[in-house]
Amino acid sequence: MKRYLPIALPILILIGMVFFYLNADTHQKPFKTLPILGNHRIDSVEVNGKKQLDTVYHTVTNFAFTNQDGELVTKNAVAGKIYVCDYFFTTCKSICPVMSKQLDRVYKAYEKNDKVMILSHTVDPETDTPAQLKEYASQFKADNKKWIFLTGEKPALYEMARKSYLLNAEEGNGGEEDFIHTQNFALVDGKGRIRGFYDGTKTNEVDLLITDIGFLLKESELVQ
Fold this sequence. Notes:
By secondary structure, this protein is an alpha+beta fold. 33% of the residues lie in helices and 24% in strands. The protein is built from five helices and nine strands, in the order αβββββαβαβαββα. It has a seven-stranded mixed sheet with strand order 4-3-7-6-5-8-9, sandwiched between helices.
């Protein structure tokens, strides 16, 4: 028996470690940490009389747009929420219907979770009035407080797409000849930081988005 002990002991220890890992309280930490995207800077701040370095990340700026019910919506509506942002237009016959159907999957995956929202912005506010958006939204039968369709002044909508959500790198001022047509979704955390981009026309990318929202929810539980 003794001659087998040097072999058996490491095996028993390994089995014990595997058992401990599998039964550990893994919900205490997220399985994946998503990056924080966009430019950031390092500031010097004073804490208790001592200077410390603090990283300041890119965040979504305030906004004021009109939803499908004709109500004003500002950044306060998504304060502390995890949300997905996209840009589309209701008369689009190419990628937009595909994107909206994929967003419907995201909505249904987190329909019962009040910490998750969707903001769909029009790129054609002249056509997409609140009434037009409401008709478009009706096909998804979504809660209008969780999946919000937004219209407003074109320059403000386009500036948000480019400067806040980083969904378009082309120069433009939202003028008559300016047009944004992107298939990408942006994932924003409860602090207004961009945490991921996903191709809204691809099922596997949206599968990843749905999974990543789950990671952000776990992350938000840890910092509470």
